Amino acid sequence: MALKIVKGSIDRMFDKNLQDLVRGIRNHKDDEAKYISTCIDEIKQELKQDNIAVKANAVCKLTYLQMLGYDVSWAAFNIVEVMSSSKFTYKRIGYLAASQCFHEGTDVIMLTTNQIRKDLSSPNQYDTGVALTGLSCFVTPDLARDLANDIMTLMSHTKPYIRKKAVLIMYKVFLKYPESLRPAFPRLKEKLEDPDPGVQSAAVNVICELARRNPKNYLSLAPLFFKLMTSSTNNWVLIKIIKLFGALTPLEPRLGKKLIEPLTNLIHSTSAMSLLYECVNTVIAVLISLSSGMPNHSASIQLCVQKLRILIEDSDQNLKYLGLLAMSKILKTHPKSVQSHKDLILQCLDDKDESIRLRALDLLYGMVSKKNLMEIVKKLMLHVDKAEGTTYRDELLTKIIDICSQSNFQYITNFEWYISILVELTRLEGTRHGHLIASQMLDVAIRVKAIRGFAVAQMATLLDNAHLLTGNTQRNGICEVLYAAAWICGEFSEHLEDPMQTLEAMLRPKVATLPGHIQAVYVQNAAKLFATVLRKHDGETESQAAQETSQLLIDRLPLFVQSANLEVQERASCILQLVKYIQKLQQKNVEVAEEVTALFAGELNPVAPKAQKKVPIPEGLDLDAWINEPPSESESEDEKPKAVFAKEEPKHSRSRHTEVDEKELARRREVRKQEQANNPFYIKASPSSQKVYDAPGVEHIPVVQIDLSVPLKVPGMPMSDQYLKLEVERRQKEKAERKKKEKKKKREKRGKERKADSGPESEEDITPAHQVDIVTEEMPENALPSDDDDKDPNDPHKALDIDLDKPLADSEKLPVRTHRPEALKSPAEDRDSESVPQETKKKSGKEKKKDKEKDRKRSKEEKKKKKKHKEVEEELLESQPEEAVQSEETKEAAAPPTSTSAEQEVCVLMCVCLQEVTAPSSAAAAVDTSSAAAPESEPDEPKDTEPEDTKSSKHKKKKQKKEKEEKEKKKKKRHHHHHQHHSDAGGEDSVQNGTVEEEEPLPVSQSHSVSLKQEVKVYDIQGNHQDESKVVVSVIFENKSDSFLKSMEFNVLDSLNSKLQRPEGAGAHDSLTVPFQLPPGVSNEARFVFSVQSIIMPQKLKGTLTFIVKSDESSTHEKLDFKLHFTCTSYLITTPCYSDAYAKLLESGDLKGSSLRLEGINMPFHHLLARICFHHHFSVVERIDSCASMYSRSIQGHHVCLLVKTSDQTVSIDAKCDEPSLLGNVLDEIKQTFSKC
Amino acid sequence: MIKAILIFNNHGKPRLSKFYEHYTEDTEQQIIRETFHLVSKRDENICNFLEGGLLIGGSDNKLIYRHYATLYFVFCVDSSESELGILDLIQVFVETLDKCFENVCELDLIFHVDKVHNILAEMVMGGMVLETNMSEIITQVEAQGKMEKSEAGIAGAPARAVSAVKNMNLPEMPKNINIGDISIKVPNLPSFK
């Protein structure tokens, strides 16, 4: 044997190992890909060998190749093989490979469950460790669910090494399987006080990670963490806790107050920068949360700012960076304390490290005030000139614009200065942000009325000097500003001193080299200027100037008419024709100015960026509906173009809506006008175009003339610096003035500032040079105020938003798993049997509620179904906050499961899970024998009554039926003992599962019943999504005897309508072999497919089960009869439906109605709905108060719609369906459901 | 949470990649390339943080890296991690490697990725910091190494011999990263455990 091993290893040593592979790759630099592909071929060969060492070596190499970017998912199965090796060396290789390349989509992952479980319970701590590490990388929801309990057990392992890993991995488990959070949380909390610091740190880590996402649920842990914070010396733990407090304080200001002191102490005492930094950060968070209520923390702020200054001044760039980062947080609430460090921050702008410069820029953004804005921007402008590299310069540019434009130009006191800055920025070479500057120019000119005159003058200069901007083709980005310049000059041309000159500048031949969209604006605005010129010369008879202007346009426009750009061409030709016509009129001395001006009358107001999104969709408008039916595929090619242009009548009856809209619009327009009239921030359109010229508000701006004079004389570009000086002077002057007539001023100012920008009152000593109207953007009427469009619906942490303080309900147990009975190991059964409950061990009762449990892997088909149903089930769970059953069980549930009892509890639970899974659309029916069995054999069983109740209530929901059969045997002696046992368990079972068949024990079985052995069956009947005529029936066989049952055969007497699907070649009356045997006390599930033709009626099928009972002495053949009840609801499939589709369906008139009244229903409406959803597979379409519409679909596609109303214990259900008899039966079943509660 | 740990050399060749979220192989390679591109153009002596948010996850994420001789060690983390703490962690990682490989160099990482992974697994698990105490890490790594040796037993001996022979004709085995030489100022956590 040893020889063989040695021999094998000698063979192997010439195989290529990882080192050889790496070496080979390095030696084949030129044809690496080719070399690797031969290696992969070798690896494939190696993987085919039986020797696990060879395989492990191959997998090891694959892991390396995966890092190089090769897809190795094809070897997933081999990886699983290596993982399951018994040798640690190979196991580790396998788990490493798995952690690198497995993910949720890897299908072989489901094969690993048992292997992982085995490794988790391995006596060797490193086997366990390696499994935990691997699992942490590829855990899936299924794995999380199946292994949660095993991992939880490991959290109390004796070895700290395992404990800390188990604690840490729980976070991943929670993410994938949120239901596990509540049951596992108490133990996790215990681990916060684990004697081992590593475990403690892991627990802190996990809780911090959880709390970061949903802090409010963890507030109750604050005292515990507080204790840890003051006692722990582990900096990692401290940092985590302090970070956690940072997240908690905003929710609980009192906590903040308590924290300040210990944190301050830490700040003073610690020498670890990382800890110091986090403390400062949290103190800042505390101060932010307190900022409203508590004024007296200036000492703490000072301390923070002071410490941060030390960080920023440090030569370590990392500290500097973090210092700036933290500073920016203080800035938000305590800008004043930061502003005193402006010097330091401006200094950081010169840093060689771009990250630091950017951080400093961020800070500047918040540090500006009315006072220092000009100064800061001036510094930035210097940096712009110095900056090398366009990226940083562009960054500066955007920052300057951001800083100036923030909160509606709040800090700008002098808009002339800002316009000058913008104009100066246009001199930047090669910037990409021309459009940004352009939009600022437009924004300011449109929204600040008082500045228009100045802006127009500047823009005219820009247009005049356009050649400077466009001279170099590389400067393409900047020519965007011409777009703004042309538009401003045109729109506000009444402010132009010499419109003729500007018009001339706009029509230069050079313009034709600009991008098309800019040319188009030029052309359009040339027309506006033309109108202005005409107006100016209005009244003068025989105006030479006006006619010259027309001639100029007629001469120059043809250039644009030839433009390749459609937009330019179109506008140019229109305007050209217009001008030609005007010229004719002019020659006849007709007054045209007024008419031409009227073309451009009215003002354009800014529109809020989100306005479009917020337009409410008018009722009845379906945006997804086709206006015209899309051309059908079959249409021949040559017909298509026709369809595009032809004005076909809309085929839909949409016209109705449009009419409504017209009226509606008119009405809304009125409303809007009303609103605008009352809105002080809204600039009203002047009633007539002429009035545009005397814009309101301009005349009472005293300062305007002073400032205007200087820059306008500057022939070239304006110099923003001059404004700085002017501004300083102005402020001084104002100050002096104010002192004189303080009282007077105050009154005046109040009047003036009515519409002015809203600087903080603290800065009131600086009045803006211009009293400006800052126009707020228009929003559509009825805009929805919702602003929360940026929440990510896919955030996995949402699911973890769970209240942890509620006491654990008994339903909240981790799924536990039973040991698999040896006898069941036949391969076909393998998977199913994992979850087979074992009668003998039924202690549990408690765990039953796990309605949510889904089955572990089964056939693929089932998996698909499962997916579909997941959603449905979740919905159900939500809508059923309390299961009726639950309350009854609470007593039993109170004690949390200890690890020792866990195993025993498992079996029953699993049974339930299984069932439910199999019947995705319905909750599973679990079966209980007790009610059936007890009456016969032990009528005085105390628990009987309780199960009955609960069962029945649950039962209604589900369509399943179950049947019980009892088998009789001779062994009476054992009866007592056994029976007791059964009924006990049975009672509990029934509670959880709650389904009881009304059919009750079959007569047949009763006749047999002499002995105590029973066999129970549960049926879950379930429509098959893929096939409209198939129904899957899940049957649970439970052996309640103490003999071994084998050779079970299942047969059903087919009816015309329903037939059991038998394998091909089998006769119509052959029975099906049940693919397993049952040892005593064991149950298992089998599924049978029935084909059904008509689903409109409920039906019952008779069937027989034959089997051999094998006891010690003998074996006998036994037979058991049963009935299968197919209700109509079992043919319904929960299908979600949207309310519009639902409405359409009802409107269509294809459905026949029927109704039902239920009296004396005494349950909350949502329970009622949940019950209907649950038992009868409906989904809620819409619910309004005590009225809800519900929908379901049968497997054959019948629509079933319900309108459920409730008032005063009476429930009325109006139903519609395209198949009246189906509907009738469904309603009967619903009635039955409720009659039982 | 740590989202990813990457080690690549000055030319961008990956030496170790560990992603704690799933990406396709192609995306992984792209992330490595882009990260290299971002990190490699930064001077020495500038800060070790980079807002590389777009690469993995959202703007919440940061790249925190250190450059040792020929290798970049890059951690992509979200805001729940302390920046300076992660810098320390990188230091611990490198020092641990140094101890385990005895004066580690890039070649050690090239030829023993698996070993590096195993060491890393003792420090970071599923994206969360598991252990920061170097001696504890080394103890566990060594214990597992011992187990591996004992499992190999007699059978392992010839394989080791052959591999030793193979390594003999390896001219390019210079030990060329000395971490000791490059002293990067670590803001130290005195009771760093």
From TrEMBL, chain A:
It comes from the Eukaryota. SUPFAM superfamilies: ARM repeat. Residues 740-749, 969-981 have a biased composition (Basic residues). Transmembrane segments: none annotated. It is found in: Cytoplasm; Golgi apparatus membrane. SMART domains: BLVR. Residues 639-675, 724-739, 793-862, 940-952 have a biased composition (Basic and acidic residues). One of its GO terms (cellular component) is terminal bouton. One of its GO terms (biological process) is synaptic vesicle budding from endosome. Residues 660-805 form the AP-3 complex subunit delta domain. Gene3D superfamilies: Leucine-rich Repeat Variant, Longin domain. Residues 775-792 have a biased composition (Acidic residues). Keywords: Acetylation, Coiled coil, Cytoplasm, Golgi apparatus, Membrane, Phosphoprotein, Protein transport, Repeat, Transport. Residues 622-683, 722-903, 919-1010 are annotated as: Disordered. It is a peripheral membrane protein. Residues 919-936 have a biased composition (Low complexity). Part of the AP-3 complex, an adaptor-related complex which is not clathrin-associated. The complex is associated with the Golgi region as well as more peripheral structures. It facilitates the budding of vesicles from the Golgi membrane and may be directly involved in trafficking to lysosomes. Involved in process of CD8+ T-cell and NK cell degranulation. In concert with the BLOC-1 complex, AP-3 is required to target cargos into vesicles assembled at cell bodies for delivery into neurites and nerve terminals. Belongs to the adaptor complexes large subunit family. This is AP-3 complex subunit delta-1. The gene is LOC107676965.
TrEMBL record, chain B:
It comes from the Eukaryota. CDD domains: AP3_sigma (cd14834). Keywords: Cytoplasmic vesicle, Golgi apparatus, Membrane, Protein transport, Transport. One of its GO terms (biological process) is intracellular protein transport. It is a peripheral membrane protein. Its main location: membrane. It is found in: Cytoplasmic vesicle membrane; Golgi apparatus. One of its GO terms (cellular component) is AP-3 adaptor complex. Transmembrane segments: none annotated. Residues 1-147 form the AP complex mu/sigma subunit domain. Belongs to the adaptor complexes small subunit family. Part of the AP-3 complex, an adaptor-related complex which is not clathrin-associated. The complex is associated with the Golgi region as well as more peripheral structures. It facilitates the budding of vesicles from the Golgi membrane and may be directly involved in trafficking to lysosomes. In concert with the BLOC-1 complex, AP-3 is required to target cargos into vesicles assembled at cell bodies for delivery into neurites and nerve terminals. This is AP-3 complex subunit sigma-1. It comes from Sinocyclocheilus anshuiensis.
